[in-house]
From TrEMBL:
Record-stated family: Belongs to the small heat shock protein (HSP20) family.
InterPro entries linked: A-crystallin/Hsp20_dom, ACD_IbpA/B, HSP20-like_chaperone
Protein name in UniProt: Molecular chaperone IbpA, HSP20 family
Annotated Pfam families: HSP20
Length: 136
């Protein structure tokens, strides 16, 4: 059985990059840290990640190739601590979100162990273009 791709459909031209983005996103579906995505208005969204135990300095937010990437890495405090039980995760993470054209990343705010990242969507104007047909 062969795999169907967007390139297999003759009426869908130039969607190879979208297909690569979908494959890359499917590979990064790890469940840590948990997150919410909410629509805050017709043209804005908010991603909220549960990052308890991380400080602002432990987190990095970047936009790379239309992907919002949020990374977390806790620093060791240097003191030798002896845990009798360690149930709080202190692992590093990377969460990626694919952004459509026109989606811009706004501010990021830490609040009560939650990282909020605001996104806005700008709607491009509809452009109608007429192509002239020349005689050959």
């Amino acid at each position: 059985m062969s795999k169907l791709t967007l390139g297999s459909y003759p009426h869908m031209l130039g969607f190879e990059q979208l297909e690569r983005l979908l494959e890359r996103t499917a590979k990064s579906s790890e469940g840590y840290p948990p997150f919410n995505i909410e629509q805050t208005s017709d043209f804005s969204y908010r991603i909220t990640l549960a990052v308890a135990g991380f400080s602002e300095e432990d987190l990095a937010i970047t936009v790379e190739d239309r992907q919002l990437v949020i990374r977390g890495r806790q620093r060791e405090d240097g003191a030798q601590r002896i845990f009798l039980h360690r149930g709080i995760a202190a692992r590093q993470f990377q969460r990626s979100f694919v952004l459509a054209d026109g989606v811009e990343v706004g501010e990021a705010v830490m609040e009560n162990g939650l990282l909020h990242v605001d996104l806005t969507l700008s709607r491009p104007e509809t452009v109608v273009q007429t192509i002239q047909i020349k005689k050959g």
